[in-house]
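Objective 1b of the project was to move from sequence-level analysis to a structural picture of ligand recognition. The entry below was assembled by the postdoctoral researcher (A.K.) and checked by the PI before modelling. It contains the amino acid sequence of the target and the SMILES of the bound compound, NAP.
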Amino acid sequence: MAEFPAYLAVIGHPVAHSLSPAMHLAAYRSLEINACYTGYDVEPERLRDMVNAMRTLHFRGFNVTIPHKTAIMDLLDECTPEALRIGAVNTVYEKDNRLIGDNTDGLGYVASLTHELDVDVKGKRVLILGAGGAARGIADALCLAGIDTLWIVNRHLEKAVHLTEQLTIHHSAPIFALETGKWPDTGIDLLINTTPVGMHGHLSEELPIATDRLNDRMVVSDIVYRPKVTPLLAAAEQAGAKTHGGLGMLVEQGALAFEKWFGVMPPVSVMREAALQEMQKERSS
Ligand SMILES: NC(=O)c1ccc[n+]([C@@H]2O[C@H](COP(=O)([O-])OP(=O)(O)OC[C@H]3O[C@@H](n4cnc5c(N)ncnc54)[C@H](OP(=O)(O)O)[C@@H]3O)[C@@H](O)[C@H]2O)c1
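Corresponding predicted holo structure:
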């Protein structure tokens, strides 16, 4: 009897430019897994119907992207402690007919820093630009990994203050909110941009940091991956800093989601290559 494939997907709005289908399908091909992965553009008012449809069709799991990462939490049977702390879900898996929401964004970020630069974040002083959804996941994972101190700089200071308060409930590292333009008195080891500034379509926006602060003792990381080298990373390279782009986070969060669905880690290099090829196709079309 023919075996049906496992069904997986990413849901978002819009979703057309997602690199996830290419990455996951490449991993299935490489491991000869009988599975399909597709992108579904789901308008917010159809999210409940979509989740019900996926339950009925026994999806093994799915990824969730903007704007559904928080709204989906109420439609699932359970969320992991990580997802609850972060307040967002990017990965859903099925277990005993229950849909469980998880979040692999922050752990994916830390994994990519370790795998690409061999950087151990333990004991590091870290400054994050931005206090949105991505910042929440990354900050949580960095605190879990044992950073020394965290500063969060945000355009609207109150959002940085709120995030700081939430993180402090669960983590013991000192965490401070700072206004844009302010800088910690002590030096920092790792600077992470989690704002969209520098992304295609946001290139004219001003970086929320003076680039003369960058130096060759720092790692500078930008989670934006279109373009590959953002203005922040270009300035960091000039300053002699080690640089880290956003594609690795995307690939590693996808690899961790894959592990939830199939119980093994996928070939991360295959997924990365597929994502790069997809981006190349976009540029030449
Ligand atoms: N590499 C990956 O895997 C990955 C994963 C997730 C997200 N991302 C990227 O990360 C970025 C943020 O995503 P998100 O989900 O966190 O978005 P979000 O929840 O909307 O948060 C955006 C943050 O950026 C700040 N911001 C926006 N425009 C700004 C500007 N012109 N100047 C200064 N600050 C600005 C916002 O500040 P206010 O609070 O003041 O508005 C907010 O703190 C996006 O570019 C996304 O593509 C990458």
